[in-house]
Protein: protein-glutamate methylesterase
Amino acid sequence: MPSSPPPYVIVIGTSAGGMPALTQLVAQLPATLPAAVLVVQHLAPDSQGELLAERLGRHTALACHLARHHAPLEAGHLYLAPPDRHLLLKEDHLLVTKGPHENSYRPAADALFRSAAVAFGSHAVGVVLTGMLHDGTAGLEFMKRAGGVAVVQDPAEAEFSSMPESALRNVAIDYVVPLAEMGALLTRLVSPGADAPALPMTDIPADLKLEAAIAERVVGSTEQIEALGHQVPLTCPDCGGSLWQLDAGQVLRYRCHTGHAFTAEALAEQSQKTLEESLWVALRMLEERKNLLSSIAGHGTHRQVTYQTERAEELKRHINRLREFLLNGSEGTGLGAEAGGPRQP
Structure:
C-alpha cells in the first residue's frame, strides 16, 4: 500500500543538456527526501522513456519511475514524464495525458508546474535547468503566484542557457544556483525547520485552477478561455484557431480554445519559424514561374519573346531579393523585462 501523500513536491523542467544535469542533481537527493520529484525532460516522441528512468535510478537513492496514469504520489520517488505525454498532478496522484502542446512541447514543463502549483500551493518548488527556448518560464510564475518557490540553474554553467535566462528575464526567481549546490538547497526547502518552515496552503488563483482543469480534460471551451482573457487578432500556429491573450500574471501568454498555449516569446519564435517556411515556399514558386516564363520566351513571335523575357527578368530580381533576405535576415530580439535580483542560498 502506498504511503500518505508527501508534504512537498519538487517539479523540474529541462531540455537540451538535461540528462547530464539531471543525473548530477538527483545524485544529491536522499532517499528520505520528504517530497516527490517530478521531471519533464523534452524528448523525441519515439524516445525510450523507461531506459531514461533506469539511467536516473543508477545515480540516485530516489526510486525512479516512468510516470503512469493515476499512479499514487509518494515521497522519495522520482517520476519522469513519458515521451509525447504531459505529466500533471491531481491531488495525491499523477495524470499522464496526450493534451495539446504548450510552447510547442509535449511534455511541457509549464503544464506540470501549473498543476503542481494548484495541487500543492506553497508546498511546491519549481526548478528550471539547462535547455533551449522558453518552456518553464510561465510555469515558474504559476508557482510564485500560488506561493511556491522558484529555482533556476545558474545560466553561466548551464550547457544551454536559454531556459534559465528566459525565466530570469520574466520571473522574480528566488534562487539561482549551480548544480553542485542545488541538491542541498532543495533538501532544505522541503525539510521543515528554521530555513524552510511548513507554510500554510495559500489561496490558489482562480485562473490557475481553471487552466489546470482544462489541461486535465485535454480540451477546453470558448467560454472557458473567454473567462481567462480577451481575444486578439492572432492565430494559433499549431491549429490555426483564434488566440486569446491571458489577463492574469506578469508573463505575457496566449491560448486557443483547443488548449495550445504559448508565452509571447514562444509564440514569436513559432511564428518566425512559420513565416520562414512560407517564404521558402514562395521562393520555390517564384523560381518555378521564372523557369516557365523563360521556356515560354523561347517560342512565339519576337514581341512575345521580348515580353516574356522581361517578365522573367523582373521575377529574377524579386527572387534575388527574397533569397538575400532569407539568407541574411537577422533574428528578432527577445521580449520581456529583466526580473528583480534573486536571493542567494
Remarks:
- The two ends are 37 Å apart (CA to CA).
- The longest strand covers residues 8-14.
